[in-house]
Amino acid sequence: MARFQTAAVPATVAMPKPKPAVAQTPATEKEHERILASYGGTYDDPRLESLVSKTVDRLVAASDRPDQGYKVTILNSGAVNAFALPNGQLYVTRGLLALASDTSELSSVLSHEMAHVLSKHAAMREDQARQAAIVTRVVTDMSNDPDITALALAKTKLTMASFSRKQELEADGIGVGISAKAHFDPYGAARFLSAMERNAELKAGKNSLDPRAQDFTSSHPATPERVQNAQTIARQYTAPEGAERDRETYLAAIDNLVYGEDPSEGFVRGRRFLHPKLGFTFQAPDNFTLDNTAQAVIGVREGGAQAMRFDVVRVPAEQSLGDYLNSGWMEGVEKASTEDITINGFPAASATARGDQWQFKVYALRFGSDVYRFIFATRQKSTESERNARETVNSFRRLTLDEIQAARPLRIKVITVQPGDTVESLSHRMAGVDHPAERFRVLNGLERTAQVKVRDRVKIVAD
Hints:
This protein is an alpha+beta fold. The chain has helices at about 1-5, 25-40, 45-60, 95-100, 105-120, 120-130, 135-140, 145-160, 165-180, 190-205, 215-220, 225-235, 245-255, 320-325, 385-395, 400-405, 425, 435-445, and strands at about 70-75, 80-85, 90-95, 260, 265-270, 270-275, 280-285, 290, 295-300, 305-315, 340-345, 345-355, 360-365, 370-380, 395-400, 410-415, 455-460. Helix 2 (about 25-40) packs across helix 8 (about 145-160) and helix 10 (about 190-205) packs antiparallel against helix 18.
C-alpha cells in the first residue's frame, strides 16, 4: 500500500525539507537574553520577519552547508548592527534594516554573519568575550542583584569581542559568494559597507553621547579596504541573469519602520531620560553618559569612578519604602541611615550602603502603583557624589501632556519622487535628524553629487 502512495506524488513536486533546527544550549539561551537586554528586546513586524526569513532560506540553500540551521531575531534598536552566535542564531537591528536600501544589501549582511558561523569565528569570539567579562567587575559588587552583573556583561560582551581583520575579510569573501550563488546582486556587500562607513562618519561628526560601541563598525571594523575587497570578489561572479537587488519588495517591507530610539520603551536625550508611556523623566548629573537597556537605565561618569542605575521594582503597597530598603535585596545597607523623605510630592526613602570597593546611596520612590529605585555608586564618597545623587533624584518628575505627545517615534516613510523634487527639497521634509541632506543621501545610497530621479522610491525620516 505504501508503495502506491509514494508513486502517486508527481515526479516534479519536491517535498519540502524540514528546516534544520538551531541547537540551543544553556549558554546560548543566556547569551540570547543578554543580547535582548542590551538591544531593546525584539522588534515585532510580520512583514519584515517574513522578508528576512525568506532571504535566509535562499542563502542557506545556496551555501555549502544547507544542513546548518539559522534563526534570525530583529532587535528593537536604532544602532546599526548584526551578529551571530556559534549555533546559528543571527541578529539584525532595525537600525541596520533602515540603512540598507534593497534585499541584496540585506542578504550581504546575513550571508556575512552566516560565514562567521560556518568558519567557526563566532565560537572563537565567544572565548574572547569570556576573557572580556573580567572588565565587568566594577559593577558586580554593586549589589547581589544578578541583573546588574548581566547588564554590565551584556555591554562589554558586545563591545569588546570584535573580529580580527583577517576574519572579517574572510567572512566578506564567503558571504559575497553565498549571496551570488543565491542569485542576489553580488555588489550588495560593497554598497552596504560604504553606507555603513558614511553612517559612522555622520555619527562621529556629531560627537554624540551614544557610544559607537553599540554599532557594527566597532565589532566589524568597516574600512575602505573591506569595500575594495568586497568589490573585487563581486567581480568574480559576473552577475548571473536575474541577480536581484529586489528593491521594491525591500522598501515595501521597511515602510513605517521605527527609526532611531523607540520612545515607548523610554529614551535618552543628552543627560535626560524620558518615559512617555509611564509618564516621568529625570536628569543625570554633568559628565554622566546614560544608556537605556531593557532592564535599567545605567549612567556612568567620565572616568568611571561614579555610576548610577535606575530601575523599577515590585514592592507591596503595604510595605513601607524604608522597610523595603532594609529587606535584604542589597548587602551592606546601613539600617541606621534609612530615612523616609518626599521627592517632588512623591513618597520616598533613602539609605546608604557599603560594598568592598564602592559606597552606595540608594533611593526608592513610589510613583503611582510602581516603585522606582535609584542606586548611586561611588568609589569615594565626596560632597560632589552626594550632590550628584541628590540632584538626580530631585529632578524626577511627571511629564506634561505636551511632552508626552511630542515623544512619538520617528519612522522611515517610503515616498515616490515627484517632478521638481530634489535631494535638498526632500531632505527638508525629514524630521528629527541632524544633517538632513547628508542623512537622506546615506539612507538612500546616493553618492555625494547624485540626484534623485522622478518616480524613484526613496526613504525619508518622518514623525
